[in-house]
Structure formats: C-alpha cells, structure tokens
Amino acid sequence: MLSGLSGFNPGFLADLNATEKRISQLNQQITSGVRVNQASDDPRAIASILETQSEIDLTTQAQKNLQQASTVAATADGALASAASLLDQLRSLAAQGANTATSATTRLSLAEQVKAIEEQLVAIANTQVQGRYIFGGDDTATQPYTISAPAKNLNDPAALFDKGTPPSDSESFQVTYTDGAGLVQNATMSVAATVTGISGSTFVSQVNTALTTSGVSGVTAQIGTDGTLQFTGSNLLSVVHTLTPGVTQAVAENNASLTEGVIQNSAPANTATLYNATGAAILPGMTAQQIFDARNADGSPAAGNIFRAVHALRQALENNDQAAVQAAAGTFPSAVAQLGQATTYYGNTQSWLEQSANDASSRLITLQQTLSSLRDTDVAQAATDLTSAQTAMQAALAAHGSLNLRSLFDYLG
Predict the structure, then answer these.
(1) Which residues contact 50 (CB under 8 A, 6 or more apart)?
(2) Residue 89 belongs to what H/E stretch?
(3) How far apart are the C-alpha atoms of 351 and 72, rounded to whole Å?
(4) Is the pLDDT confidence value at 262 over 80?
(5) Is the pLDDT of residue 336 over 90?
(6) Main-chain phi, psi angles of 282, to 5 degrees
(7) Distance between CA atoms of 207 and 228, rounded to whole angstroms?
(8) Residue range 237-241: average pLDDT?
(9) Which residues contact 367 (CB under 8 A, 6 or more apart)?
C-alpha cells in the first residue's frame, strides 16, 4: 500500500470515538452532579451504593416514625398533666366532703363537680391524635372508655332494656368476689337479649338467677332506691359489664353504678414496638386501662385505680356518707402515684425519642456523605478530566489533519 493512502485507519477512529464518549460522559456528570448513573459507570461501586441507599431509606423511615411517636408522646404528656390537675381538684373536693360540718346539700353539689371531673378524665382516656386513640394500645381505632349515661329508672314499666337479636346478642357481667375460703373468684353470667326488650325488674331477676346458676354466693343484684341496677355483697370486689354490638338500651349504658362509672369498650394488648435508626426498641405508650383503670391479675381493681377512686367519691357524696367520703379520700394518694408512674413513663419516652431523633439525623448526614462520595461527581476533578480529554481530542484531530492523505485517484491521471 502506498504511504498515506488511508489515514482513517480503525485504530484512530476507535480512539477518537472513545475520547468523544468520555467527553460526553464527563459533560453529563458535571451537568447532573452524578458520577454513577448506571451499573456500567462504575461496576465496583454499585454494591456499596445500593447498600448505603437502603440504609438511608431505613433511617428516613425511622425518622418519620420517631416524629409521629414524638407528637403522640407530647400529646399524652399534656393529657396526663391535665389529669394530674383534675386529681388535685378531686382531693380538695374530697377534703371538703369529709368535713363533718359539711351539709347534705353541699355534698350533693360536690358530687356534681366530681361527676364533671369524672367525665373529663374519661375524655382524657379517649384522647386522639389524627383520629387514633393514643391510649388504645394495639386497638387505636376503638374508643377505650365510655362515660355512663344518666341512669334510667329500672322501676319504670315503660323502660325496656336488653334489646337485641337472640341468641347472638346478650349482656354479660363478670363478677369478682371472695368465696367462703377467702379466695378471689371470677364468674361471668349472661342475660340473653330479646327483640322487644324486657323490664328492669325482669332483667334483675334474670341476673340473680344467673348468679345462682354460676355458683356465686353472697352477691345479689337489686334495684336501688334511685332506680338503678346495683350489686351488693360484703364479699363483692367488682362487676365488669360487657355486651355484644347488637344490644341496645343496655342496662349498664343507663346505669352509672357499674364499672366504676364508666364502661370499658375494649381491653387491648399493648405490644406495638417502635424502633429507632440503630434497631433499638421501645414500647412508646400505655393503655388507658394501665393508666386510669389499673387491675390485679384476677381482674379486680388494683390500688391506684383512678376511675374507681373517683366513682367511689361521687357515690359517697351523693349518699351523704361522711365516712365513705373519708374512705374514698384515702384512696387518692395511690391514684396520684399511679398517674405519676404514667407521667414518668412518658417523660422517659420523650427523652428516648428526642435522643433517637438526634442520632437518626446524625446517622443520615453520615450516610448521605458516604453515598455522595460513592455516587456523586467530583466536579473539580471532572472539569480537569474534561479539559484534558478535549485537549487530547483537539491534538489528535490536528495531528491527523497534517497527514498527507491522498487517495488512489490522486496518483492516476
């Protein structure tokens, strides 16, 4: 072949194309700020990039969860502070009612104030954030407690109770009592609902029959002088009422003497665990029962049961029973201590959440820096490389242009 006949040899074109591709790639990296857009850009860095991005995603989600939990914890802390203020008011009312010089009329007035506070405490137990009950444990969609409605007179022949669809619907009572040997026992009896409902006296009769059938001795259901359902017995510890969803005009819904003046709508577990960015976990909340309605293992009200203390005080004031008022007043130190434990719990939770949020922010900054070093463009270096590539390409083209490039036709004729 004659010298200079084909300067456009494959090697020169390949080098030229590679340089052009490199220039295009560097321009894209500088413009986008990203060095690795696809696996082929840097195969060795891909695994580290994906792992770091996954950790960033997990940390970001943890931050969101911590923020939501912080909102709930702050709301709970505020709610408990309000409850503490109400307990202080109740102790003052109890002291007034326990005074031997206090009249029956004054005690009735005090009872109305206690009733209003009782309703406020139930409202606090039902505190919501974004439509979810924050003291609902694992069941945040169900209102934990309902305040008893004004009692309907069970002696009223026009008042019908326990309406529902038999046999699926019923009203049940869990009675906790001590037997002849002094042992705590639990018994549950049910009164089946009827389509039309039954009178108060018939209902009470059926409850007593159920008590006998269940082997409960010493406990009797009766209609009080105020027309409400009452359970009596020196060995009686507590009565908890439940009903199926289909029951209407339930006795307990119209009788404030049951379940410490309130109805517990659900008793959920409390297992929802919150994890921070490093995998440490905490139970971020307490249930309304744990805070306001503390119970022993056998289901009986425990010392510190706030709802029980409040209702006992209310009943004692309504009955103008100075000794009972004094006894009820004596239960409030335990109730205050119970609430104090819950307040401490949420204070510790808030501290944990705050520290976890700070740790997550620091961790996220470190991860983002790591990702940037793996994936993002070093603009200064890329600019230097781009200049070098452009200079090399211009030099190659200039050198190529100086070659004596002649075709065969230049030698003919």
Answers:
(1) none
(2) helix 43-98
(3) 13
(4) no
(5) yes
(6) -150, 150
(7) 14
(8) 79
(9) 52, 55, 56, 59
- Count CB neighbours of 142 within 10 A: 12
Structure token pair of residue 313: 């005080």
- How would you class 375 by CB atoms within 10 Å of its CB: exposed for 0-12, middle for 13-18, buried for 19 or more? buried
DSSP, res 376:
B
Rounded to whole angstroms, how far apart are CA atoms 122 and 262?
8
Does residue 405 surpass a pLDDT of 90? no
Q: What is the pLDDT of residues 46-75, one digit of tens each?
A: 888 889 999 999 999 999 999 999 999 999
**Which of the listed ranges 146-150, 196-200, 211-215 does the model predict with the highest average pLDDT?**
211-215
Q: Nearest CA to 70 among 363, 349, 359? A: 349
Say how far apart CA 97 and CA 85 lie, in whole Å: 19
Question: Per DSSP, which regions of 20-84 are E strands?
Answer: none
**Residue 143's Cα: distance from chain center in Å?**
13
**Residue 187: partners with Cβ closer than 8 Å, 6 or more residues away:** 174, 175, 177, 211, 214, 215, 216
Tokens describing residue 55: 């950790």
3-state secondary structure of 295: strand
| DSSP symbol at 49 | H
Buried/exposed code over 151-178 (b: 16+ C-beta within 10 A; e: otherwise): bbebeeeeebbbbbeeeebbbbbebbbb
Q: Which of 274, 271, 273, 288 is nearest to 353 (CA)?
A: 274
Residue 375 to residue 268: CA distance in whole angstroms: 48
Residue 311, Ramachandran bin (φ over 0: left; ψ between -120 and 50: alpha; else beta): alpha
Give the side-chain half-sphere CA count within 13 A for 30: 15
**Residue 246 CA to its chain's centroid (Å):** 28
Q: What is the mean pLDDT of the chain?
A: 83
Tokens of 51: 């792992």
String of DSSP letters for 160-187: EE-BS-TTT-EEEEEEEEE-TTS-EEEE
Report how far residue 242's alpha carbon sits from residue 240's, in angstroms, rounded to the nearest whole number.
Answer: 7
**Three-state DSSP state, 92:** helix
